Amino acid sequence: MNVKLLRKVAKHILAEPKRYAFGWVQQSSAVPCGTKACIAGWTILLGARLRKSFDENGQLIIPKSLWRRGFGYYSGPASKLLKINHAQASRLFVNWPSQFDNLWGDAATAVKRIEHFIKTKGKE
For the segment 12-26, what is each residue's pLDDT rounded down to a tens digit? Predict the structure, then answer.
């Protein structure tokens, strides 16, 4: 598991909580950096070192080298960067344990979720 990248994502989300949005990545004028994203989205944006992050339609550009068969559009590349398996990706990005069952919640909850995932080595 790439703990360094997970902590970088958590720090980035917490530094500007309005940057966090569950389940997607989008360009947004509502935040100074111009982007809102979920945990998987920020993992890609911060971990893939993209030269160009968005296409002309505002869609996140994901290099083919990061695609993973059987994974979602964001979860595949993010899980590859984080070096986690499909079950762990599902737990981290979507199926949160009950104490974090605030899917559409705030950045602080997302950061706590990341830290719990690290602490349990991806088992919860």
Answer: 999 999 888 877 777
pLDDT (0 to 100) of residue 103: 54
Sequence ranges of the domains in the chain = 3-119
According to the 3-state scheme, what is the secondary structure of the chain? CCHHHHHHHHHHHHHCHHHECCCCEEECCCCCCCEEECHHHHHHHHHCCCCCCECCCCCECCCHHHCCCCCCCCHHHHHHHHCCCHHHHHHHHCCCCHHHCCCCCCHHHHHHHHHHHHHCCCCC
Query: What is the pTM assigned to this prediction?
Result: 0.88
